[in-house]
């Protein structure tokens, strides 16, 4: 056996985060934060201003590698997450993508009458991202686990159909009810483009991947089964057929009481839990031994102090008997004070051997 997971007593120390994804239960949980590379960091804002636009930054592999490494240098997290965006998949599927300053992403929307075959996929749009992965991998501390990611089909479809973010994902939900065949074709195309993208990230060097289903919470139960559980299951199955050793973290934000069905239905190796979920309930509801990730409220981190310590104690006690990766319940907010992140790390790690 070779590699960091060979389990030899005199071999290299296993990476804490990867070990937990494979079922280890250390006394102190490994930790990273969703959106850890981003606008709350002055060094990110400086590089972003220099490059001009968000996509310019993503497509400059050296700069994107630097942004991926910035939070590692500053805080020493156990995980590095590739700096890119979930909307690179619709972009590679042939949709126009741009970012409106101060607002967010825009895509030329897929209307009910538009034929999906009007999109001309161009998977060469993934190449710069794979190059970012290779550059990060070459520079990464061997104790740090490198995470790749993609959006889940439902969440990607909400952006592809509406052309932008929306409060209730109404455009995609309407299309899914009114024209399920067409919606199914969109979901299938996203599944295929996502498997290509994640396999490429894995071949370039990421060691686990996360599927972000940021809008999983907006669906009725039968729709959740059809558009969240089944498509994620198909991605997991296809990835496992190619890369059986790579753990997949599913993050169905807002799934609430449907979390356990998601875990068993998709076959993910670990599950991300958002901040609205009671961690004690999650521990009872989720399959025994399934690694969980989460779930500090990003707003508690902005408040800092005692509120954070109480929440951390509550989360850690709930997940003390299962593999746990400490994280926020959703992405870190741009106005989060840096010293609150430092305080969180020292609090979580205060009794780390
Ligand atoms: C829905 C979604 C998107 N992108 C993402 C999601 C799913 C996770 C979630 O729910 O938060 C995921 C994402 N986006 C980004 C990452 C990079 C890695 C990391 O987590 O640090 C990741 C994992 C960078 C980014 N993606 C974006 C930024 C900010 C761009 C800037 O510098 O102006 C960053 C750092 C832009 C983006 N990208 C997206 C939106 C809605 C926006 C604009 C609003 C916002 O800024 O949060 C789509």
TrEMBL record:
Residues 30-39, 147-163 form the Uroporphyrinogen decarboxylase (URO-D) domain. It comes from the Bacteria. It is found in: Cytoplasm. It holds the Pfam family URO-D. The record marks 85 as: Transition state stabilizer. Gene3D superfamilies: 3.20.20.210. GO terms for biological process: protoporphyrinogen IX biosynthetic process from glutamate. Signal peptide: none annotated. Its EC number is 4.1.1.37. Pathway: Porphyrin-containing compound metabolism; protoporphyrin-IX biosynthesis; coproporphyrinogen-III from 5-aminolevulinate: step 4/4. It is an enzyme of class 4 (lyase). Substrate binds at residues 35-39, 85, 159, 214, 330. It catalyses: uroporphyrinogen III + 4 H(+) = coproporphyrinogen III + 4 CO2. SUPFAM superfamilies: UROD/MetE-like (SSF51726). One of its GO terms (cellular component) is cytosol. NCBIfam families: hemE (TIGR01464). Belongs to the uroporphyrinogen decarboxylase family. This is Uroporphyrinogen decarboxylase. It comes from Sphingobium chungbukense. The gene is hemE.
């Amino acid at each position: 056996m070779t590699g960091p997971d060979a389990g030899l007593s005199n071999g290299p120390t296993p990476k804490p985060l990867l070990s937990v994804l494979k079922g280890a239960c250390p006394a102190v949980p490994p930790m990273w934060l969703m959106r850890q590379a981003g606008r709350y960091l002055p060094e990110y804002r400086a590089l972003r201003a220099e490059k001009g636009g968000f996509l310019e930054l993503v497509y400059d592999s050296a700069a994107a590698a630097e942004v991926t490494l910035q939070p590692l240098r500053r805080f020493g997290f156990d995980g590095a997450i590739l700096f890119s965006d979930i909307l690179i998949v619709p972009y590679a599927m042939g949709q126009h993508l741009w970012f409106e300053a101060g607002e967010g992403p825009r895509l030329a929307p897929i209307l009910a009458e538009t034929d999906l075959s009007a999109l001309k996929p161009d998977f060469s749009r993934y190449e710069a991202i794979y190059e970012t992965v290779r550059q990060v991998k070459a520079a990464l501390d061997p104790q740090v686990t490198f995470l790749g990611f993609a959006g889940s089909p439902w969440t990607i479809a909400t952006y592809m159909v509406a052309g932008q973010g929306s409060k209730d994902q109404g455009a995609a939900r309407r299309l899914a009810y009114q024209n399920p065949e067409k919606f199914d074709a969109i979901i299938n195309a996203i599944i295929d483009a996502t498997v290509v993208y994640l396999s490429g990230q894995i071949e370039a060097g990421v060691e686990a991947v996360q599927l972000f289903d940021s809008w999983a919470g907006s669906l009725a139960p039968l729709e959740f089964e059809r558009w969240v559980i089944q498509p994620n299951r198909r991605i997991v199955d296809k990835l496992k057929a190619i890369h059986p050793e790579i753990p997949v973290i599913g993050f169905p934000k807002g799934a609430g009481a449907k979390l356990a069905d998601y875990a068993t239905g998709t076959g993910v190796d670990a599950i991300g839990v958002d901040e609205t979920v009671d961690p004690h309930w999650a521990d009872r509801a989720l399959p025994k031994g399934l690694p969980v990730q989460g779930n500090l409220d990003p707003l508690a981190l902005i408040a800092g102090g005692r509120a954070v310590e109480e929440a951390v104690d509550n989360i850690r006690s709930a997940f003390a008997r299962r593999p746990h990766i400490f994280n926020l319940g959703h992405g870190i907010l741009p106005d989060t004070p840096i010293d609150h992140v430092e305080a969180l790390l020292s609090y979580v790690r205060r009794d780390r051997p």
